[in-house]
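If your schedule permits, I should be very grateful for your opinion on a structural question. I would ask you to consider whether the tokens describe a fold that such a sequence might reasonably adopt. Thank you for your consideration; the sequence and its tokens are set out here.
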Amino acid sequence: MNKILFLMSWPFRQLPLPLSLFLAINTLTVAGFYFAYRNMERTYDSFKIREEENQQSLVNRLAHEVDLEMNHTFQVFENFTSSISNALQLLGFESAYRNFTHRGTITQFMKRNPNVVSLVIRDILGRQYIENGQSDLQAADFADYLEKAAAESLNGHSYRSPILKAPQSATPVVMFSEPVRDSGGTLVASLTVIISLKPLVVDLLEFTPPNYQLFICDDTGRLIAHSRTAFRENAPSIFSPGSDFSNHPVVQFHIETKGRLSQVQSYHSLDQQPFIGCSAQSSFLPWMLGIEINRDIAFATVTTMKKSLHKWLIVTLIVSSLVALFLAHAIRMPLQQLLDGSMRVASQSFSEPIQLQSGNELGILARQFNKMQRSIQLYLDQIKEAALRQKETLLKAIYALVNAIDAKDPYTKGHSKRVSRFARFIALELGQTGTLLERTELSALLHDIGKIGIDDNILKKPAQLTAEEYEVMKTHPEKGFKILGAIEDLQPITDGLRYHHENWGGDGYPRGLRGEAIPLQARIVAVADAFDAMTTNRPYQMAMSWEDAINRLNELSGIRFDPKVVGAITHAFYSGKLCEEDF
């Protein structure tokens, strides 16, 4: 029994058993919800497949209904054409016309076929007979297509128009025309019928199951009818007949594949509702029939189950959280002590140990934490001491190098230290602090270290240098970079000594950098170096006053020097921060 309790308390073998039971129960609960959710996902997938199959079957049946109806209509038209042809052959156009009128042949045909809007007979002499049905539409509404139909038929060809619509009507129509020949096979007339497709569309809409939306488009993506409008006068513009529906995902896919491929798609409709839909092509008419249904409606059962599961999961998590809060209260104090101790360590305070007397894991952790804290403090003290010694050694070496540089040229004695101090004032004006400020000072201090590699005859020459000597002198920035660049700790200060002879205008050396391409550290050192050179006696010039030197720097601002850096030293001078008496 003790072994079972020991295992059940894992991983808190010495903490209260309820905590472990709480974790175990919650794990089982979450696992149960997970598998239930996965099962619903499988159910959803099954629903989705079944819905896609039903949709495809439904739209194919609708397309088949269109083909059956139109084949029947066309067969009726062909039979009537044959009877008209026989009458024209026996009686001639005028006699046949009187016979049709007397016997009411055409009128009876129109009554038997109310979907026929108009019937037009035209002979080769241009004489024509027109019979309009009971519809508001008239043959005159389609005069251009009637002319085209008659011309095709009188040339011996059958004619079938695209889907047509009168200017003031939403009713779609199609026009059929057949040639009429006499007994000798000679063309004598054309017979044209205009057929309203409204009854067919109404039948299709009635055949469409509830919650589904049917839309019919022509081969260019123009809307012919939609379940949401169904010939209403004040239909929404995006669903009104004649609207461009080619951007609808189902229509777009149908046009791209030319109706040869159909698949159920998931998308958002033009009014941003989630839908699934597919399409089919009529083989008789240039029609694309599309069926779609709102996803939320199609999968309402699964959606309801998901929502119920989410609710139960939320309730369970709330109850579990309350239990967790109760248990957390029991262990909050020791954890808080551990947290406070870790925060003190994070803030680099290692003097105060954690005062936690307990025999469980938290007590062991506290004791190990205190031991680690003491070890860290010891290591940090040793590291700080070593770093301090290393820094002191490095500074001594640096000052030895600076003294060696100044010793080579008596005219520039103290030059490096003064440049470093001037650079500090400039950097402070530019907002530099801390490590960045220290690097700028050090770079200025060592900016002429490359002169160690310059021959003394050139370096100490009391007269102006020749062109060849000047070229040698110009190598000192690169020499300095090679000396210090090999020392990893000094690499951050090498920009100042390498590029302090670059000019803002781009005509400096060693690389001819221009403007902001020159590192800021080098731009500061350049101004500090020039200011000291102007204010000290040199073999080739007498020292200027500090104010004259400041004025000269401003004259060269934007030409040789960065205007921002010149502005910084100018402000330091005139604000009294940079005083000649301090040097």
